[in-house]
């Protein structure tokens, strides 16, 4: 874990117009791990990801990618090092899974060379890794939510970037499909050594599928560290205003978050 | 296999992208693409077939147009004239009349189709064709303003007003686009705002045109109205030499921009992650579109509908995920040429703007219907 962080945030403030969302945030993303960002609604999770992907320019502070300022990279050079999947991306009508995956090769191609057998092979591998190769010629709108999400991950994967940022990849997915996507994320990290940053809503899933947990509140870093040590009832009460039990589940021995009975809250308050 | 949350046992490996080996100099994969030296492009069978058929039909129509017409010239004399050995009458008929008109139709159609695909792609909206966005409306307003100004019309003689129409239309188109962009810009480019502002400016420009026409002298109103319907009647070879570099540059720009335009179809949030700067791409694509439309309007007047229908038809015929600029250019050329041939061969000669709508609208309706059936099954 002593390797230098591939992506680090130094005193970053950012927001939209006059509204400041992130306030002097500093953070180091550990290399080759799954980092999950959690926090209550509006705490700046997505804003942080947008700053990391250079979709939003910070008003103060700076982001370093491999020790160099993020702003110094040319767009296509950056797209070969880092990619981000926004929340609920929408593909044009009748676009097929293989066409989407092939788009991931774009940062590697000059404008006059838009096809290469090698690019095809990499896109096919990405589709196989995400388990969507069976739907290669299916239009995206005919797929289920989970399959569609995995098709987008295939595109990001075909980019072959070391860093992948995923903004709520399990949004609008039922539990089975959410687990399917997160299993994939962890597998990608383990098998290829990628550094992955995920924003998640679901605290239990975040605790189970993470190496490094980052908790934001009101645009500031509330806590960070391994989930077992970080995800505590105190943190949940303080950070989220949620009274909850945290325990290792009996089968997998992984941290689990269960909300406490509402009645207890009233008893406690009284 | 179950995920382990504490990964202390799995040492973090440095990510190394697999080495990309370069392929052969020439490769043809019948399913995916073609490559020649450093240049390569994807080539789906459907697009290849559609492209070949479109070009073939286009060439046949060009041939028919050049070899036949109201004035009878034998085929061997047409060939001789094309080779540069014709008599003056033959040169007038074959080169100045037929060839210039065919080339103008192809170039104007290509420019309109291509421009429409660019604006539709950038705004991600099929309604956003230059003629509905106010570009052609603005061009028309400026042109008509010029023709109907008594001071200008009387000072520069009988035909001078008509000759000034083209440059004035180009200026008007550019000025209107700048106005629409300025009004719709709000800390960034917004396709829907652009369309709404464009529609308002368009209706303003069109009512301005009507107002000018009601106040104009009858003769000037006639010149203006003829130009406003869009026509290839007066086209000569110099118009073609003006238009050719415009269209060629436009097509080249489309080829260079194609990758970024395709990335933009995935949304303004996704495009940057693929290395495409949205603002720059949108500005460049709009600029290319406006230059193409202005050039076409200068040559033939505002021809309605082509820039709207050609990209939509191309998208369905070539089965692409968005309106393809180059393929739309091909279909636009085909549509304008076919419309002009129809217009010329009817008993009462029509301006080309009428049959483009008559041919284009039912075809698009047919394609829309086909598409609905295919997806609903």
Overall description:
The complex is a heterodimer of chains A (270) and B (377). Chain A has a single domain (7-269), classed as 3-Layer(aba) Sandwich (Rossmann fold). Chain A has a six-stranded mixed β-sheet, sandwiched between helices. Chain A is globular, with a radius of gyration of 19 Å. The longest helix of chain A is centred in the C-terminal third of the chain and has 18 residues, at 175-192. Chain A contains ten helices and twelve strands. The model of chain A has no long low-confidence stretch (mean pLDDT 88). Chain A is of the alpha/beta class and 270 residues long. In chain A, 34% of the residues lie in helices and 26% in strands. Chain B is mainly alpha-helical and 377 residues long. Chain B has a single domain (53-376), classed as ABC transporter involved in vitamin B12 uptake, BtuC. Chain B has helices spanning 45-67, 75-82, 88-123, 135-148, 150-155, 160-184, 191-215, 218-229, 237-264, 278-300, 306-317, 325-345, 353-376; strands at 26-29, 33-36, 39-42. In chain B, a hairpin with a 3-residue loop joins strand 1 and strand 2. The radius of gyration of chain B is 24 Å and the shape is globular. At the A-B interface, helix 2, strand 6, helix 3, helix 4 and helix 6 of A face strand 2, strand 3 and helix 9 of B.
Q: What letter string, H or E per element, gives the SSE order of chain B? A: EEEHHHHHHHHHHHHH
Computed over alpha carbons, the radius of gyration of chain B is 24 Å
Most strands sheet of chain A: 6 strands, mixed
* Assigned CATH architecture of chain A: 3-Layer(aba) Sandwich
The rounded Rg of chain A comes to: 19 Å
CATH topology of chain B: ABC transporter involved in vitamin B12 uptake, BtuC
What class, by secondary structure content of chain A? Answer: alpha/beta
Strand order of the largest sheet of chain A: 6-7-8-3-9-10
CATH architecture of chain B: Orthogonal Bundle
């Amino acid at each position: 874990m002593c390797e230098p962080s591939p992506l680090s945030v130094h005193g970053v403030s950012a927001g939209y117009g006059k509204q400041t969302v992130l306030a002097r945030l500093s953070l180091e993303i550990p290399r080759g791990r799954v980092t999950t960002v959690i926090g209550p609604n509006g705490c700046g999770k997505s804003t942080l990801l947008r700053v990391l992907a250079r979709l939003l320019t910070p008003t103060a502070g700076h982001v370093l990618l491999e020790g160099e300022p993020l702003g110094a990279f040319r767009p296509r050079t950056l797209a070969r090092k880092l990619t981000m999947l926004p929340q609920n991306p929408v593909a044009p009508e009748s676009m097929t899974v293989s066409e989407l995956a092939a788009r991931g090769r774009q940062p590697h191609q000059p404008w006059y060379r838009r096809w290469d057998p090698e690019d095809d092979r990499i896109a096919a591998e990405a589709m196989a890794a995400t388990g969507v190769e069976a739907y290669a010629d299916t239009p995206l709108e005919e797929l289920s939510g989970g399959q569609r999400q995995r098709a987008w991950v295939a595109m990001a994967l075909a980019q072959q970037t070391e860093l992948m940022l995923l903004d709520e990849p399990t949004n609008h997915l039922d539990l089975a499909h959410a687990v399917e996507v997160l299993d994939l994320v962890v597998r990608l990290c383990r098998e290829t050594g990628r550094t992955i940053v995920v924003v998640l809503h679901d605290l239990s899933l975040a605790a189970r599928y993470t190496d490094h947990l980052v908790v934001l509140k009101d645009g500031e870093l509330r806590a960070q560290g391994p989930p077992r040590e970080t995800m505590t009832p105190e943190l949940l009460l303080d950070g989220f205003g949620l009274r909850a039990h945290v325990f290792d589940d009996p089968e997998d021995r992984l941290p689990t978050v269960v909300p406490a009975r509402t009645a207890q809250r009233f008893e406690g308050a009284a | 296999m179950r995920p382990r949350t504490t990964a202390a046992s799995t040492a973090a490996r440095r990510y190394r992208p697999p080495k990309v080996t370069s392929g052969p100099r020439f490769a043809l994969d019948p399913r995916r693409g073609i490559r020649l030296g450093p240049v390569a492009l994807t080539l789906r069978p459907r697009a290849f077939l559609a492209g070949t058929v479109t070009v073939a039909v286009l060439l046949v129509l060009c041939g028919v147009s050049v070899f036949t017409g109201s004035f009878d010239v034998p085929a061997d004399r047409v060939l001789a004239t094309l080779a540069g050995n014709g008599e003056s009458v033959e040169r007038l008929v074959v080169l100045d009349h037929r060839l210039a008109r065919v080339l103008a139709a192809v170039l104007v159609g290509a420019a309109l189709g291509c421009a429409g695909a660019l604006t539709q792609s950038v705004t991600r909206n099929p309604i956003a064709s230059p003629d509905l966005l106010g570009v052609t409306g603005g061009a028309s307003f400026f042109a008509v303003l010029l023709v109907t100004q008594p001071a200008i019309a009387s000072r520069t003689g009988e035909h001078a007003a008509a000759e000034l129409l083209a440059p004035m239309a180009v200026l008007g188109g550019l000025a209107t686009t700048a106005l629409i962009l300025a009004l719709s810009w709000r800390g960034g480019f917004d396709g829907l705002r652009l369309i709404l502002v464009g529609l308002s400016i368009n209706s303003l420009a069109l009512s301005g045109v009507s107002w000018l026409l009601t106040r104009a002298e009858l003769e000037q109103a006639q010149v203006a109205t003829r130009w406003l319907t869009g026509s290839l009647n007066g086209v000569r070879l110099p118009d073609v030499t003006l238009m050719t570099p415009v269209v060629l540059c436009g097509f080249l720009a489309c080829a260079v921009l194609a990758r970024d335009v395709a990335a933009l179809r995935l949304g303004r949030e996704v495009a940057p992650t693929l290395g495409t700067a949205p603002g720059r791409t949108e500005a460049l694509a709009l600029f290319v579109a406006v230059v193409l439309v202005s050039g076409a309007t200068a040559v033939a007047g505002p021809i309605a509908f082509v820039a709207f229908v050609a990209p939509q038809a191309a998208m369905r015929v070539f089965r692409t995920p968005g309106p393809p600029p180059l393929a739309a250019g091909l279909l636009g050329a085909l549509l304008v040429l076919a419309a002009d041939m129809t217009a010329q061969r009817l008993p009462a000669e029509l301006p080309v703007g009428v049959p483009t709508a008559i041919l284009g609208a039912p075809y698009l309706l047919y394609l829309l219907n086909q598409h609905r059936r295919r997806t609903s099954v």
